[in-house]
Structure formats: C-alpha cells, structure tokens
C-alpha cells in the first residue's frame, strides 16, 4: 500500500482516557511508523488543550473549538463541522478519513462531508447497543444514516459486528433470490464490514518476575464502579467468596457511583482487612495493580471487547468473567472461566478459578507469551491497512446513488437525511465561493520520521562531541 | 474455501479474510423471546381505570357548574362528600380486612378520623382565602389553566393495579397528578360566589382527586365484575349529570368513553403484529442477585 494521508476523526481522544482514545492513538502511531501520514481531528478541551498539537511520534492533532454536551460528546448538528473539515482536509491533502465511535457526532459529520472532497471513509464501531429503549432507537437511526454511504466498517469483535450490522442495517434489504435454498448470511450481509480486534502493548503488561506463589490468593478487580460493570454481582459474591475461602483477598481498583455500595458491603461483613479499595487507578499504574494478584474478576453486564481482561491475562492473571457481549471471543477456554451474570454462577466460577490457581495449573509467564502472540498492534495495523487499500481501490458511489440510498432510510428519516445531504452540498458550494481553494494555507512540509531520527542522532553526536571537548 | 472450520474467536489468526461472513452469523439472535401477546378483553378491563379517572373529572366539573349556577346547595354537597367518604373508608377497610389484626385496625381508624377532621377544619378556615386567591385573574385564563391541569392529571395518573401484598407505593407522577387536579380545583373555586360553595367544592375535590385514586388502585385488584360495575356506574352518572347541562358535552363524553374502552384497546391489539423485539448477546445482561 502506497503512502496515504489519513485523518482520524473522533470526539474521544487524548487528553481523555479510555479504550477508544488509546485505540486511535496506537493505530495512528503504528501507521506513522509504517510511513503513512496521520492526523487526528477532535474537539478542544478548554482552557488549555486547544488549537493544533503534536503528539509523539509525529501525530498532528487538530482540536476544533466545539462545546461538548455530555460525556465529552459534541452536539450533532450536521453542518458546523464542514468549514473546519474542508480546510483541514484540503490543507493536509487527506485522501481517507477513519471515523471512530458511534456516539461521536464529529465522526458522523466527517462521513457525511467527505464525499464532497472526494475523500474515502472508514468507520470503526467500538461499542454494543441494545434496541429496546428510546435513546438507542434514536442513536441507532443516526448511526444508520451515517453509515448509509460509508465505504467500510470495522468492528472490534464478531458480536460487535452482528450488533452493528443490525443497528445500521448493513445488509441487502431485498436480496435477489436465485433459488429456493435459504439465503446464506454471506449473500446478503454487506461485504465491507470487517472484524479487527483491539490489541495491547504486551511489553507494558509483563508479569512480575519476583512474584512468589503463597497461600494467599489475591483477586484483582479493575473497573469503573458503575452498574454496567456489574458491581452489584461483585458486592453480592465477594463476601461469599471470603467466607468460603479464608485465604482469598480482594484488591479493587477504580471509582464510580457504586463505590458506596462496596464500602457498605465491606463494613457490613467486617472485611476491611481482606478487601482493599484502591480508588481511581491511572492507566500507567494498572500493571502494578494487576501483578499483585493471580485472578482477575470481571463482572461486566455488557462488553464489546474487554481489553481489561486481555491486559490482565497478559500480566499473568487467570481471568474469571461473565459471559456477555464479545468476551467469549477474546481468550482461549483454558485462560478464562465464564459465569452467567448470576450470583451463584459467579461464585461457582470463582471457586473453580481459585482451585486452578492454588493447584498451580496456571503459569503466568506462559500466559504472557501466549497473549503476546494473540494480540499486537502491528498485526492490527496491517489488517486495517488492508481495509484502507480495499476502500481506496473500490469505486466511489456517485451522488445520485448516495441520494437514493439515503432516501431508502425510511419513510420519515429518508427525506430528513436527504435534505441534510443536499443542504450540505449547497453549504459546501457556498464555502467554495467564500473561501476559495487558492487561499487555503496548504501544508508543504510533513513530519518525516527518518529525518527526525537523523536529526536526533546528529544532536546526540554533537552533544557527545561537545562533552569530549569540554 | 479453506478446509478449516471458522471459529468465533478473536485470539486465533484464521485463514479467512476479516470481512468473512460465516453461516452462523446472527445465529444467537432471538426475536420476541419474552413476548406475551395481550388479549383484547384484558386490555378493555385495564382501560376501566382510565374511564374511571375521566368520569371522576367530569363529575367534578358538572358539580362545579351546578354550584356556580346555584342549582346545587353547597350544604347538600358537603353531606354527600361526607357520605362518600364513609363509604370509601368502609370499602377500604373491607379490602384490607384480612391483613391486619383488630388492634392495629382500630388504631388506623383513629388515625383516619383525626386526619380527616384536621383536613376538614383546615379547608373550612382556608375557604375565604382560596376564594380570593385567583379572583383577580380573568375567567378565560382560569378555564384554560384548569383544563391544562386536568389534562396533566389524566396523563400522569397511576393506572397500574396495586401490588398484591404490601403498602401502596406512591410514584412521583401520581403525586404530581393529584397536585395538578387539586390546583385546578383551587383556581376554579375562585369563580364561585360564596365561601360555603368554595368549601364544599374543595372538600369534594379532596375526595375525588386525593382519596379516590388510592381506592381505585386497590379496587383494581378486585374481581373483574366489580370493576366493570363501578366503571359503568361512574360513567353512567357522569353522562346523567352532563345531560341537563349540555347535550353536546354528553354525546362527546359518551364517545370518549366508548373510544377509551373499546377502540383504544383494539388499536393496541391490532398493532401487536408489528412487534419485533430483537435480543442478542449484545444486550446489557440483568444481574441475578439472591
């Protein structure tokens, strides 16, 4: 694949911390080391994170001055991003945008505008959504509209793909039936929906080489303490486990609304000496928390991928998790025990895990080596580049097809989004007149990784030379 | 096609492209898994509660008009209210009969008597104030305001049947609903000419908007026949009260009751065939805690 200029667009990026944020950063960094040009477009974080910043290794980040409404997401309004978007795409000579996260309105807008500039689009969906409440009905319609004309979709797990295909209706609604045989899914599901998992930097999650197996077994929980993370199950099972296994202690990292319930549970069962609550844990400190234990417990009620479990397994812990979302796909059966999201079953799975660990059947260093071979960013990057390549080689949809596909959205949504599409074009023409392309301040010098290494070497040499002289 | 079987795992590198769609795609999708279709008559029965609430509001309005036109003596209304209160308390006691022993029942009776006398006296003392509270507002505003408040009352009222055991748990919306109706009667009371009428109207409004919903909640657990009879009685008396005032209103009321009882459930029953509930592994699981 030849050198491509890619723009990552998402509401969620550094300085925020999270799965999506680190995914975008790691993917961009790997693309840059493979010689591509990558920029990130996100919203600003006043007062100090504004304007254009550079992140190592040569990742340029545009912080667009948009106010956020909730959980760092901007208000979906379909048009106001276009002036910024047009200028950035033109001056950076971008040929492909990669939008992330289905609740990010910047990502949706990017997909809507990019055809005006002949830019191709890829979208990555990071989360799972239900279908049965008003909020998900509305957001699912927005996602469906945004993904109507996208060139490729990437999901982080097979379950995530099933979910996204249903939510965004990424299948042929009226497939041509050639014979009486029932249709196979591959015949009607769009062939531009890919599954590429997340990855992790295995070197950052090495097991502790000085770890000694003692009688005490430490169970580690690192999670946001919220309802969706199943903290109710933890509150219910922890006292039972402590009562049944006198050699087990808990180490809980994270903060959230359910902290109070954990504290109450600890007090009620007098377990202050056996359940340690660490409070919020910084991403850099996660490993040091993980390596103190030998079992990782995850009680999430929904999870698209579950990177925390992969990190724990990589740090040499045996994993116990609820069987939800994409979790059953991430680790082989002998590294993880599954439980249904029920108190009794979590207790059963934990007892099983404690038995496995206390009998010494789980080898941390071997687990680390195995996870290292499962997931790595290099592989993810190669697979993503294959998607980019397929997108860049495919034929773009013409405007008339786009309009027809948008109209197919539904009786009400179709005309609304068609209007948005057409008004967006008119707005674009207006911008072409207001801010002619000749006046755009084009970027002439890009970050050159090789030149950077050279300069770094020269500086080092010069410094060494000076020291020798002095 | 490679010989190896595709597996739904991410940790293994498989000889399939990333956009490979296996035949097992969406095999864990379940449609209408816990769907229990309604039967038409159960919906009709459930709609009785709505008819009762509507009927009570229109009975109240008819009585208000009669008071305003001075065709009803406020003293009769006060006695009627007291009678209705006694009847309601008796029914309530009958429904609660098997739950409490005699001692706590006697205590309960004393409590009810005490608080009802308090409310009675407070209303009596406050009626001159209530009468002049919104007297300066023009009648048009009063009609508009009170109809808005009554709509709010109907929309927010709690129509669910009482839990089989335990006390009635008040929801925020049902409290709001009661408040809307009482405020509406306060603003209407300012259109009446004398303090006695205001007092009678307020006593009646406390009866029908504060106490009746609680009783109705309980009545919904009674056999279907009882509910049907009560609904029919209320709807019939509404129409009887409305007839002398305006035939058009009576006809509209009749139509509304028919619509709510028979046509509304019919629409809901018919629309069930469009039900398409999708469940799958991506749904947020419900934790089961003992």
Automatic annotation (TrEMBL), chain A:
A Pfam family recorded for this sequence: PIGA
A GO term, aspect molecular function: phosphatidylinositol N-acetylglucosaminyltransferase activity
InterPro entries noted in UniProt: Glyco_trans_1, PIG-A/GPI3, PIGA_GPI_anchor_biosynthesis
Record keywords: Glycosyltransferase, GPI-anchor biosynthesis, Membrane, Transferase, Transmembrane, Transmembrane helix
Residue intervals passing through the bilayer: 412-434
Gene Ontology terms describing biological process: GPI anchor biosynthetic process
EC category: transferase
Domain spans labelled PIGA GPI anchor biosynthesis: 47-133
Pathway the protein acts in: Glycolipid biosynthesis; glycosylphosphatidylinositol-anchor biosynthesis
Domain of life from the UniProt record: Eukaryota
GO-annotated cellular components: glycosylphosphatidylinositol-N-acetylglucosaminyltransferase (GPI-GnT) complex
Residues covered by the Glycosyl transferase family domain: 207-344
Membrane recorded as keyword: yes
E.C. number: 2.4.1.198
Job description of the protein: Catalytic subunit in the complex catalyzing the transfer of N-acetylglucosamine from UDP-N-acetylglucosamine to phosphatidylinositol, the first step of GPI biosynthesis.
Protein name from the UniProt record: phosphatidylinositol N-acetylglucosaminyltransferase
Organism lineage string: Eukaryota, Fungi, Dikarya, Basidiomycota, Agaricomycotina
TrEMBL record, chain B:
GO cellular component terms, A-Z: glycosylphosphatidylinositol-N-acetylglucosaminyltransferase (GPI-GnT) complex
InterPro entries tied to this protein: Plno_GlcNAc_GPI2 (IPR009450)
GO BP terms: GPI anchor biosynthetic process
Taxonomic placement: Eukaryota, Fungi, Dikarya, Basidiomycota, Agaricomycotina
A Pfam short name: GPI2
Keywords of this entry: Glycosyltransferase, GPI-anchor biosynthesis, Membrane, Transferase, Transmembrane, Transmembrane helix
Entry-linked PANTHER family: PHOSPHATIDYLINOSITOL GLYCAN, CLASS C, PHOSPHATIDYLINOSITOL N-ACETYLGLUCOSAMINYLTRANSFERASE SUBUNIT C
Pathway: Glycolipid biosynthesis; glycosylphosphatidylinositol-anchor biosynthesis
Any one GO MF annotation of this record: glycosyltransferase activity
Membrane topology category: Multi-pass membrane protein
Keyword Transferase on entry: yes
The protein's name in its UniProt record: Phosphatidylinositol N-acetylglucosaminyltransferase
Ranges that cross the membrane: 40-64, 76-92, 112-130, 196-215, 224-243, 249-270
Cellular localization per UniProt: Membrane
Family recorded in the similarity comment: Belongs to the PIGC family.
Primary residence: membrane
Protein origin, superkingdom: Eukaryota
Keyword Metal-binding: no
């Amino acid at each position: 694949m030849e050198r491509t200029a890619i723009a990552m667009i998402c509401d969620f990026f550094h300085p925020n911390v999270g799965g999506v944020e680190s995914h975008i950063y790691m993917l961009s960094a790997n693309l840059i080391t493979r010689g591509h040009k990558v920029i990130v477009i996100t919203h600003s974080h006043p007062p100090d994170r504004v304007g254009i910043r550079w992140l190592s290794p040569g990742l340029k980040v545009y912080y667009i001055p948009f106010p956020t409404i909730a959980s760092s997401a901007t208000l979906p309004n379909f048009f106001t991003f276009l002036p910024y978007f047009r200028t950035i795409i033109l001056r950076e000579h971008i040929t492909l945008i990669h939008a992330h996260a289905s609740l990010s309105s910047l990502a949706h807008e990017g997909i809507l505008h990019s055809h005006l500039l002949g830019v191709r689009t890829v979208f990555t969906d990071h989360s799972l959504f239900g279908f049965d409440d008003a909020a998900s009905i509305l957001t699912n319609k927005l996602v469906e509209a945004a993904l109507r004309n996208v060139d490729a979709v990437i999901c982080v797990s097979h379950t995530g793909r099933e979910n996204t295909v249903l939510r965004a209706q990424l299948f042929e609604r009226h497939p041509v039936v050639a014979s009486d045989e029932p249709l196979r899914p591959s015949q009607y599901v769009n062939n531009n929906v890919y599954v590429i998992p997340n990855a992790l930097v295995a070197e950052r999650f090495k097991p502790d080489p000085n770890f000694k197996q003692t009688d005490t077994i430490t169970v580690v929980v690192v999670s946001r303490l919220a309802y969706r993370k199943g903290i109710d199950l933890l509150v219910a099972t922890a006292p039972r486990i402590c009562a049944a296994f006198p050699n087990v202690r808990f180490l809980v990292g994270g903060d959230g609304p359910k902290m109070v319930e954990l504290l109450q549970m600890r007090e009620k069962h007098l377990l202050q000496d056996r359940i340690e609550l660490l409070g919020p844990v910084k991403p850099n400190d996660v490993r040091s928390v993980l390596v103190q234990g030998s079992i990782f417990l995850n009680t999430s009620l929904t999870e698209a991928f579950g990177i925390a479990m992969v990190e724990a397994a990589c740090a040499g812990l045996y994993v116990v998790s609820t069987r939800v979302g994409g979790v059953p796909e991430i680790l082989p059966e002998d590294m993880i025990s599954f439980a249904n999201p029920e108190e009794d079953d979590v207790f059963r799975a934990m007892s099983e895990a404690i038995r496995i660990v206390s009998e010494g059947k789980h080898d941390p260093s071997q687990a680390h080596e195995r996870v290292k071979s499962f997931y790595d960013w290099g592989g993810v990057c190669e697979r993503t580049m294959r998607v980019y390549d397929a997108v860049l080689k495919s034929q773009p949809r013409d405007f008339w097809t786009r309009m027809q596909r948008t109209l197919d959205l539904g009786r009400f949504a179709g005309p609304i989004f068609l209007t948005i599409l057409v008004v967006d074009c008119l707005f674009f023409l207006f911008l072409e007149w207001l801010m002619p392309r000749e006046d755009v301040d084009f970027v002439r010098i890009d970050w050159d990784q090789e030149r950077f290494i050279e300069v770094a070497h020269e500086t080092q040499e010069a410094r060494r030379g000076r020291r020798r002289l002095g | 096609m490679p010989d190896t079987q595709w597996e739904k795992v991410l940790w293994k590198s498989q000889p399939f492209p990333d956009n490979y769609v296996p035949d097992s795609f969406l095999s864990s999708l379940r449609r209408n898994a816990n769907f229990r279709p309604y039967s038409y008559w159960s919906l009709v029965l459930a709609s009785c509660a709505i008819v009762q609430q509507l009927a009570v509001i229109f009975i109240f309005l008819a009585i208000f008009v009669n008071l305003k036109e001075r065709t009803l003596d406020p003293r009769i209304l006060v006695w009627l209210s007291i009678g209705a209160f006694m009847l309601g308390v008796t029914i309530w006691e009958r429904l609660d009969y098997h739950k409490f022993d005699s001692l706590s029942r006697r205590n309960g009776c004393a409590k009810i008597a005490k608080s009802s006398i308090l409310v009675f006296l407070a209303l009596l003392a406050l009626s001159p104030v209530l009468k002049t509270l919104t007297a300066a507002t023009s009648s048009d505003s009063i009609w508009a305001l009170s109809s808005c408040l009554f709509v709010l009352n109907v929309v927010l009222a709690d129509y669910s049947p009482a839990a089989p055991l335990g006390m009635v748990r008040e929801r925020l919306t049902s409290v709001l609903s009661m408040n809307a109706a009482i405020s509406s009667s306060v603003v209407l009371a300012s259109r009446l000419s004398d303090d006695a009428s205001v007092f009678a109207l307020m006593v009646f409004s406390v009866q029908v908007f504060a106490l009746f919903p609680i009783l109705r909640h309980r009545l919904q657990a009674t056999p279907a026949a009882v509910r049907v009879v009560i609904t029919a009685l209320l709807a019939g008396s509404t129409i009887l009260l409305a007839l002398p005032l305006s035939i058009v209103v009576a006809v509209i009321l009749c139509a509304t009751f028919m619509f709510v009882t028979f046509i509304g459930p019919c629409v809901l029953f018919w629309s069930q065939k469009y039900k398409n509930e999708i469940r799958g592994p991506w749904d947020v699981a419900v934790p089961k805690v003992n």
